[in-house]
Structure formats: C-alpha cells, structure tokens
Please model this.
Amino acid sequence: MRYLVALLALAWVVMNALVGYLFVREALTDKMAHKGFVLQSLPLLGGAVLILVCLPLLWQAVRLLTSRSVAA
Amino acid sequence: MSKLVVPLVAVVLLLVGLVVSLFELAANQPWGQTLGDNFMFARSLPFTLGLGVALGYARSLWPRTTEPKHRFARSTIWLHWFATLAVLLGLATGGWQYLKGLLDVPSPISMALVYRVHYLAASLLLLVVSVCVTDWWLRGESALGVSRGGFIRALRGLAHELPRWLGGTLGYLLGLDLRRAPPVSEPFTWYERLVSFPTWVIALALITVTGIVKAMRYVFPIPGDVLYWVSAIHVGAMVLLAIKVLDHLRYVLAPSRWRMMRAMLGGSIEVATPPASRSQPAPAEVAPAHPAVGGPA
Model:
C-alpha cells in the first residue's frame, strides 16, 4: 500500500510542479506585465511557492519508497 | 427518531429542488450547457447546505463507540475521503480553467464538462463542510483546537515538534522554555492543531465563500469590481489549497508518521499513555532528544 501511495504522491508532485512552472513562465510574459502588478504577482508568487512546496513532499515520497521500515 | 426524519426531509427537499430546477431549465431557457449548469448549481446551493446541516445534526445525535485503537470514527474517514475527492477534482478543474485563460490556448477537453465537474466537486465539498461544521458545533468538538489559556503550552508543544532549527527559532522569538518536556497532545499533534487545521479552515472558508459569490453572479447582480476581487481571491485560495494538499501529504507520508495515513485508511493506531494526574509526582521535566510524535513536523 505504501508504495502505491508514494507513487501517487510523486505523480501529484510532478503535476503540481508543472502547473507551478507554467504559472511562473506565463507571469513573466509581456502580456501579463501589461496587466499590472497584482495580476502578474498572483501566478508568479503562486507558481514559485507551489514549486517550493513540492520539494519536501518529493523528499518524503522518495523516503517512503526507499525506507525499509515505517512506523506501524 | 429525529436523526432519521430530518435528513430524510432534507433529501426529499433537495430532490424536489433539483427536479423543479431541471424543469425550469428545460422549459423556459435557451441557455448553453455551462450557463445552465451554473444556474443548476446556484439554485441547488440552499438545498445542498440544508442537507449538510441536517446530516450534521443527525451525526451529532448518533451514538459513538469510542475505540481507543482507532484514531477516527468510520464516518469521519468517509467524510475525509469525500472531501479529498472534492478538493482534488475542484483543484484539477479549477486549475484547468485558470491555465486555459492564462496560456490562452484551446482546451482539448470540453470546457462545459470541466465546469460541470467543478460544480459537482463544489457541491460535494459544500455538503461535507456543512456536515462537519454542524456536527462539531452541536457536539462542541474541540479536539483540533486549542483550549482557552493553553496557547503558550500549545506553542511549546509545536516548537518541540518542528525541526530543531525552526522550533528553536520559534522558542527563542516567543521566549518559550524548551528545556521542559513537550506537553502531550492526543489524538492530534500540536502541528495539526496549531498549523494544519487552522490553515485548512482559512483556505476552505476562502474558496467556499468566494465560490458561492461567483456562482450567484447570474442569479443576483454583483458589482463588477466586487466580482473581480472575489475571482482573484478564489484563484489565490485555489493556490493556497494546492499548497495545503502538498503540505498535508508531506506531513502524513513521512515514514515516521505512516501510522497516521493508516489510521485514515481505517487501520488501528497505537495510542499514547494519558498524562499522569496532577496529584502524582511529575517525571523529570527534561526535553527528549526527539519529538513525541513521529519525526520533526
């Protein structure tokens, strides 16, 4: 069960990191720059934080996959 | 008796409301699927919330068996997974809508279908939230809160559970005595009570209130400026919810806390020994090398 959960978590990390990347990439385009600071900062900050928060989950999912024993 | 009658009446009212709304939609309006779904969703809101309140009332009256080996009641586990489904579907479809606008590309999936699934997920989330709020309110449930006058103690517990550098910084900034033993917190950890649950409440409240206002925009006139900010907050709450899901998974998937995940899958969990009574002499109050629950939060 824990391997399945860890793999699902990894898939969730990849999807969220992709969304975060798309947020940041689009926030830095000229089109968004013309829309003003608020509309540009939402995807920029949101995307950056999303990618950052993916990292600890990535670490825990890998640990769950590779650890020999877990707390029962 | 009333714990069966009240939910049954609410179910009947919801069905009547949906049927009347469907007839209204089919007979009089030339709307497309998306606008029609929006009206269906907006009209069903009072009935969905009413059903949630009725079910929450019934749940509060239902007798509970307290099995110390199980962290959650069976109905709590079901409600958690319904809420999980609703949040994940809502995030996926909401993110899809936002990305379509942001990237300015045609969607390979029918957007009417995306909106329909979003409304269904929102209805499910509203139902679960209203069940839980009503039930907890009527029973005076406070296991995930902090008791009055116990905030400093809770902060000390949190500082012990956080990674050493973060807990130490928190303790230094707030003047907490971290040499004392961490206070016991069962069945929920201090991180769950002080960080995780309050941020869930904020994120869910924001997404729910702004979502209801957005859904009502064709039923009730809402000024454009208000709608603009409500939409911006709705997107912000979506990102906050996505972050919450990632952080929640990070917390419960740590190998040292795998038992928490098992508890939510219906498994049993070992329960800590209750703290000694005040009349007994306290053990040596020296902070242990590791936090009381699993690894660092």
Q: What stands out?
A: Chain A has a mean pLDDT of 88. Chain A has three helices and no strands. Chain A touches chain B at residues 1-2, 5-6, 9, 12-13, 16, 19, 22-23, 26, 31, 38-39, 42-43, 46, 49-50, 53-54, 56-57, 59-61, 63-64, 67, 69-72 (CB under 8 Å).
